[in-house]
TrEMBL record:
Residues 7-421 form the Ammonium transporter AmtB-like domain. InterPro entries: Ammonium/urea_transptr (IPR029020), Ammonium_transpt (IPR001905), Ammonium_transpt_CS (IPR018047), NH4_transpt_AmtB-like_dom (IPR024041). This is Ammonium transporter. It comes from Geodermatophilus pulveris. NCBIfam families: amt (TIGR00836). Keywords: Ammonia transport, Cell membrane, Membrane, Transmembrane, Transmembrane helix, Transport.
Amino acid sequence: MDTGDTAWVLVSAALVLFMTPGLALFYGGMVRAKSVLNMMMMSFGALALVSVLWVLYGYSMAFGDDVGGGLLGDPLEFFGLSALMGTAGLEGSFAADELVFTVPSMAFVAFQAMFAILTVALISGAIADRARFGPWMVFAGVWATLVYFPVAHWVFAFDGAESETGGWIANDLLAIDFAGGTAVHINAGAAGLALALVLGKRRGFGRDPMRPHNLPLVMIGAGILWFGWFGFNAGSALAANGQAAEVFVTTLVATGAATLGWLATEKVRDGHATSLGAASGVVAGLVAITPAASAVTPVGAIAVGLVAGVLCALAVGLKYRLGYDDSLDVVGVHLVGGLWGTLAVGLLASPTATAGVESLFYGGSLDQLWRQAVGAGAVLVYSFVLTLLIGSAIAGTMRFRVTEEDEVTGIDSVVHAETGYDLDSLGGGGGRGAATLGAQTSAEARGVTVPTERSRA
């Protein structure tokens, strides 16, 4: 056991945990005022539920010894994690008996738990404003069990790390996914698309304005995500070493380039660069560099980020053209950004980076590119199909979506008996604020179009 590596992994785990509240702020600011609490509760609900499932059997399914062609870990191998407890060495040293490389297995358990939590929470952005909390929690548990835990085994379980045999993408296909472009972002993006189709469009989608109600919250959330993402990516080195340092830099510069790319696209297309665009560009860059962070040079990372910013800024408008209601652009940012970042490994990976891969643009061939495409496609199809089945089953048995009347009234007050902003307690000024919100809700109920939002189409 290396104490420096252990310290870095534990700190990184805490950073990744911080990303889920950051996501709650990011998503919460993007919805209307009458939905902010429900939106944030879906992230916190995922945090609570997946934490428990991970300890009981999720870690075993993801990192237990393979029980079927690289598709699934043994769900009972580490059930409850008791087998991973224990210390040895000099009295008081607490050197762990069970290691993953140079860190205690329990540190690795904690670090990977945060990925599982965040992936489930990401999906919620696709169904904002219309999902009941109880069915969402059922969905979160079933989806984590049937989709995320197996896919994490495919992508993250390397032979000989925790168990003797691991997943097929990591060990047989040899696709590069350093920190979760497939397992996290493509997985969540495909699931978000499927679930948006199951629940249907929000009332007034494409007609009524659905403006973000609090852009400062959005930018605070994006800043927290950027901060936490250094643990997400650099922590995936599982050591305080040169690779972690390189990944830290590629994560920084790709995110900056993506933000510039998104803002430039907005300026050319709409005539102005926006705070919402800046926050969205940050997330797009973080998503895209995640699979490629150990494979590209800093200049290559700039290219990955810049393309991601432009591509995702254009992709978020697809929902209006294709007619699916992905409320907070999980598809446009996470699915599209994850696909680009995963394929970019096959195009821009440099043999001088720590992954040591030769890509098409660095003197290699199509070999790595097809591996990346197969891995990305397999996760996309598996997640989309399973999510359609899970979501349809829950919708058919538990009424996943709120009624139209409750959607107009506001999901916070109907489902949670709370409101995000108690404007009546503010006195005279609050009365005007409450009246404004009431007028907007009334207008939406009548189907009247009120002043339009800045469109991201």
